[in-house]
Amino acid sequence: MSNKKLARKIGQLLVVGFNGKAITPEIKELIHDYHVGSIILFSRNIGEPEEVLQLTSSLQKEAKAAGYEKPLFICLDQENGVVSRMHQGMTTFPGAMALGATDEPQHAYKIGLATGRELKALGINWNLAPVLDVNNNPENPVIGVRSFSENPQKVAAFGKAMMKGLQAAGVMTSLKHFPGHGDTSVDSHLDLPVISHEMERLENVELVPFQACIQAGADTVMAAHVYFPAIEPKANTPATLSKQVYVKLLRKKLGFQGAITTDCMEMKAISNSVGTEKGAVKALQAGTDFVMVSHTHPVQKGTIQAITDAVENGELHASRIEASFQRIQLLKEKYTSWKDTLVPDKEKALQIVGSKEHHQLARKVYRESVTMVHNHQLLPLKVDKQLQILVLEPSHSFMTQVEDKTSQQKSLGSAVKEYIPHAAVEVYDENKLEHELEKLVHAAKKVDYLILGTMTVTEKSPVIAFVNQLVKDNSNIIGVGMRNPYDFHYLNKLRAFINTYEPGYPALQAAAGVIFGREKARGILPVNI
């Protein structure tokens, strides 16, 4: 294989990101000089739908001008719910646990199809979804409501439906995070989690959804930066660097024929241990196909150079590059075409994205997901002009590195005001709660009902003492879990508790509808609390 041909094939294995909503000199260099095969977008790249379409078509034109045989894969994490890169102008769709709460896998298919149509219309042909992690650890800091359920069979059913919906829209999918990130208490963006279960347990829980989706025709599988001692004998070797995980388990035992991708190799579980560049070589040696380096331009170039050096010095065999290249080309034949990418139909695209039909679908599913966790003869409230209501809602704190800081969300207070326009609204900061306690408790004494929004309550959260103080003076408190349903475990003195699984406005509107009797709470808890 000539050096030029080898360099181009190595480039095709890379998934890279860049800053900005337009092509930068850095990404242009990676396309023209290194032939990178895939681009990952984050919220830093996303503007209005028209801007996104302009960006994706510009990237594809650069690839065509650089002599690419097949178009770029352009991907992002559009899981929906708390992990969504696209906001402006796009439909707000419910995320995994909200879908799980509907107990209807067909909703996952329809949401997957609608999500895929909007992505495809904007030139995005690969979605890093669905999440197949079984969330059986309430203290998991990174998965939580990104999971459909704590039940492996339910995750399998919903994950398969979501995957099929996206595929039907012509969008490639990634099952993540293999072999399972659900039972961790560490965020792999920050450190290396360890899951110490025996193989039998992994086969009965973590692997069940992956096996179901692989049998149903999975495209790609994303490996997790998680160490599984039962699979990988070498200490502290994450799945992303493990031949045992890639070859013995995923390829041979589960029979997966598609392409494998790493999670981002700049995450601290890798960058703070083996290092991104060296880690990329080790991941390819182990059997990955795509290597994801999402952020830093010098690191991206350094990674390509490290892979090239490894081939030239015999550390990494050229046949390993060739095998991955061929798998990726097969997927590009299935999911990409120059016709779609070079001459996008802007008018048609803007009719699909944020369409009335998609908004109606999302609202229907949100209404079916809202769950009445507890109600002791309090709800529904009667809409009354004389009613004095105080809404206490959390300032929007971001739980994990993978979530975006978006400001497009309206509040729980806004949703309540649709029924009681004169309702008072106070925002509390959990970290400053003890300083605000006296003021908020005093305000709560003056109203008939208090509606308290929560995001994620933990064992040491000051919200627990705050609620215990509130219920002494006002028993008419309605909790609204705007994220984790586990909050009620710590706040079970409340007379009523509703869960929305995410803080998006359509979910909060549905919760307000339940509070005031305009909607029924149809959701079923996907986890035990």
What labels describe this entry?
hydrolase, alpha/beta, glycosidase, TIM Barrel, Rossmann fold, 2 domains, Putative lipoprotein YbbD, eight-stranded parallel beta sheet, GH, NagZ_Beta-hexosaminidase, single chain, 529 residues
List the helices and strands and how they pair.
Blueprint: H1 3-12, E1 14-16, H2 25-34, E2 38-40, H3 49-65, E3 73-76, E4 78-80, E5 83-84, H4 96-102, H5 105-121, E6 126-127, H6 152-168, E7 172-178, H7 199-204, H8 207-215, E8 220-223, H9 243-253, E9 259-262, H10 268-271, H11 276-286, E10 291-293, H12 297-312, H13 318-335, H14 338-342, H15 346-352, H16 356-369, E11 371-375, E12 389-394, H17 412-417, E13 424-428, H18 433-445, E14 449-454, H19 462-473, E15 477-481, H20 487-490, E16 496-499, H21 505-515
Parallel strand pairs: 1-2, 1-10, 2-3, 3-6, 6-7, 7-8, 8-9, 12-13, 12-14, 14-15, 15-16
Antiparallel strand pairs: 4-5, 11-16
Helix pairs in contact: 1-13, 4-16, 5-6, 5-15, 5-16, 6-8, 11-12, 16-21, 18-19
InterPro entries: GH (IPR017853), Glyco_hydro_3_C_sf (IPR036881), Glyco_hydro_3_N (IPR001764), Glyco_hydro_3_N_sf (IPR036962), NagZ_Beta-hexosaminidase (IPR050226)
Protein name: Putative lipoprotein YbbD
Pfam families: Glyco_hydro_3
Give the class from helix and strand content and strand pairing.
alpha/beta
CATH level-4 homologous superfamily of the largest domain: Glycoside hydrolase, family 3, N-terminal domain
Estimated share of beta-strand residues? 5-15%
Q: Helix proportion of residues, in percent? A: 40-55%
Give the CA-CA distance, first to last residue: 58 Å
Order of strands across the main sheet: 9-8-7-6-3-2-1-10
What is the CATH C-level name of the largest domain?
Alpha Beta
Mean pLDDT: 94
What is the annotated CATH architecture of the largest domain?
Alpha-Beta Barrel
Q: What is the overall shape?
A: globular
Radius of gyration: 24 Å
Number of extended strands: 16
In CATH, the topology of the largest domain is named TIM Barrel
> How many domains in all?
2
Characterize the largest beta sheet: strand count, sense, and whether it forms a barrel: 8 strands, parallel
Count of separate DSSP helical elements: 21
List low-confidence stretches.
none
Family: Belongs to the glycosyl hydrolase 3 family.
Pfam family, one: Glyco_hydro_3
Keywords: Glycosidase, Hydrolase, Lipoprotein
Protein name: Putative lipoprotein YbbD
